[in-house]
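Lab notebook, page 48
Experiment: co-folding of the full assembly
Goal: obtain a model of how the components sit together before planning crosslinking
Operator: M.T.
Materials (sequences as entered):
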Amino acid sequence: MSWKIWSLKKSPWVFHVNAGACNNCDIEIVNLLTPKFDVERFGIKLVGSPRHADALLVTGVGTRQAAIRLREVYRQTPKPCVVFCIGACACGTGIFEGGYHVAGPIDKIIREVDPNAIIAYVPGCPPKPEAMISGVVKALSAI
Amino acid sequence: MSIPLNILFWIVVIPGTVVLGLIASWIVRKVSALVQWRVGPPLLQPLYDIMKLMGKEILVPQDAQQTVFIAAPLVGLAGILLLSIMLWRIAIVQTAFLGDIIVAIYLMTLPSLALILGSSASASPHASLGTAREMKLVMGYELSLVLAFIVVIIKTGGQISLAAIAQQAPVLSISGFLAFLVALLCIQAKLGFVPFDIAEAETELGSGVLMEYSGALLAVWKLAQAVMLVGLPLFLVMVFLGGFGTAGLSLVWGIGKYVLILVLLILIKNTNPRVRIDQAMKFFWFYCGITLVIAIILAMIGYYSGISWL
Amino acid sequence: MNQQELKDKLTEIKDKLTEIQQPLDDRIFLLCEAENAYAVNKFLFEDVPLRFVIATGIDSDDCFEVLYHYAYDQLGFVITVRAFIRDCENPSIESISPFLPGAEWTEREIHDLLGIDFKNHPDMRRLILADDWPEGVYPLRKKKAGETAKQWPCETSVRPTTESPARRAVQLSKPILVVGPFHPLQEEMEFFQLSVDGEIVTDIDMRISYNHRGIEGISETLQFDQVPFLVSRVCGICSASHPLAYVQAVEDIAGVTPPERALYVRVIINELERIHSHMLWVGLAGHFIGYDTVFMWAWRYREPVLDLLEEITGNRNNYGNVKVGGCREDIPDETVPKILKELDKLEKKTEMLTKAVLDDPIIHARLKGVGVLSKEDAIKYAVAGPTARGSGIAIDVRRDDSYAAYADLDWKVITQPEGDVFAKAVVRLLEVLEAVKIIRQAVKKLPKGPVAVEVKEIPPGEGCGHAEAPRGETFHYVRSDGGNRPVRHKIRAPSYVNVPSFRASCIGEHIADVTITLAAVDPCYSCTERLAIVDGRGSVLHGYEELHRLSCEKTARLKKEIDPPQWKLEDF
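Observation: model returned without errors.
Model output:
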């Protein structure tokens, strides 16, 4: 495993993107990033610009309007980066399958820009904060 | 100094300063975490951060001024590294020269200027807010910082050589103490720590001057910030606290003084909320200005009348 | 007015109607042709007067229909005007927005989704469909054989620009400084745009579409018993109220009454949701004005309520506890003592917090007189929930058109007359205490018996169901043709009418008060994050972070002027 990926695993900086979510997952993410869970132990830091990010925490099903922006954010994130699909909607459209305004699950949207994107899935509706930490840590150790 | 030791010095100084800077920035983060009842990052975290950033691709914005954009972090790092090398050399090898304090002040402004240039070359509407604020901040504290050093120079009778200044400990006099406090807060602003992290909120979310930087260039900025944690407190130690010795007890004493300044910086950082840019300007120009005028007057009285504790 | 007087009043406009139907005691449908709809609406809104709820557009086989739903709160009636548009090629109808600003958004939405033209609408821009959605394609029109939604693929090469079809040119001051937004996508600062003159807000515009998942369209493809799971996810925090409103609408059509135990279980779950939703709001409001202690406290005390809900229903949010005919799951008897214990603890803490808020001079100075929504504006924008009750309008679906078991329980509707942010905060805090009271009674009176009745078929018909979500009235309209899927399902979330009222409450306010004024209507969390002040060319002047900081600084300034009591976390 290259040293780039190794150091990325040690210091994943995350950027939160809401691509058309019902807010449950977003609220659990806010819970996650409060001092109570102390994700700085893992080197995780919430950054305010996608250019500083190593991981995108994407929630929501990916509506058409949001998809345009999401692709833009992905382009602005320097590679290598990991996209975390948080929640059932992001993992596979969940209950919004077949909607006319749904541009597809997040991995479909991201792969349109970059077929080799690294994507990890944290399912749940919404996933509890502990589940999210566990998912992020597991995904990072599996890369 | 003998030639092998000299060579050893030159080999060790840059990596040593970098390592020391990374350790210092870890100390800052760990203490801040403990104050918030958290565990905080592991020891090598700043190193991991920089390694990771080196491995990411560099995205240069389309409309950015490419040369300036790329050169700015390098200039900033070079400036602060040069300052640190100079200070270590003076401390360890005693090669001070006349006017070196002026060179040091000049080198100290390079990182801030580089930040301003780099962010304004980003062509990003978001970063330009940070640029404007950083410029205002720099205008605020640079004058206070230089005036604080002038207080010290007055106390040494006009000798502008760090060797002479480092012999004394101006902080043990009233004017020196006042100047030390002001200089400490100016260093706080230069490092971009709370309460003066207006331009680049490092621990918080939000846009900042470095918003458009990524990859290895961002790593260079982070490295420059880490090395600033070595160079700037060291400069304060040499100017105000009586120098950094090299032999035995004075070495331990010197390290102690350096750690004291770090601790003060961290304490101020963790016990204050962020201030607005106009409040910061008012603070530096008005309050620090008045303090320094008083200090200068006291220093002059003290020098001319021979009272050393004024 | 009592029932007879209401009916007599409605007959005054009889000459413009083709028919009056009353399928249930408290549901009246007035049928008319499109040409007369404007006069009928004006009469109902101004002369009766009724409260506007929402408008629904339907593509029936041989014509278009626009349904205007009104509520008469004193009797709990829902009165719907069904306007038939016979011209299927170029359907159009007169807009009612000139006298009813609360209908602006819904008419824009019907235009987007069905292509009905609203004449004389002040601002017919795209509202709810994406910028790259093709013109002339109306997703809610009935599809011809073989058509599916997948025929409108997204252009992956589309990059966002500042010229979106929904952006309105905002005239304004010179660009000063620029900041990016707080959380999400950098370019997405066109969600809320405020025009400012110096430091005072002069206008506001909103772009919504990011969360539009086409739920009404998906609902038409699901069976009646699958829909509750879908609508539970319309909004994460009102996730118990939406399915309840839908299920009540369908129960109206089917003529089914759930067993008593089911009604009480529904009350318990919905009130627990109200508690944790208001706690969330209290925390966010505290965060917006810089009282982060309140933020940490409120979110910390939400957690036991969420754990309780997880124990009862299996999930912290998205409970999935209602179905047509009753509830899916029962509350086991072992949980009852736990509920009561948790409520005791929560009640004590909430009482302390309420007293602290009502007494704190800083909060008074910060929130009183800020973001005032006058009673007249509140009626014109047809707001609901604490936003309305904070402006002195005493409407609450739980009392007006009593559903579930609320009629059997003893509780009060909380109102405050001032209309400012402080009033809304007081309303929400006191509602938490009322909710605790309600749950206690419901738990004690919980009758034995089954929690659901079997419902085999949904006959043709239409039903309107509403429930009081934490943010206000949630309204669902369902039309069935006897099959096993809804023909049309209209969802109106309370924020849909509350958020546009921002225009009335925010204009004239200082930009430091913008975040708290918007938060006072309690939109969903990520709505508030997408807030920015722009100038005429679309560059952002102030992002959300800047506005938040201004808000906290104002509080700090006030703190210095007024010396307040110190709060410590240990006090709670």
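Interpretation: Helices of chain A lie at 3-10, 24-32, 64-76, 88-92, 106-113, 129-142.
Next step: discuss with group before ordering constructs.
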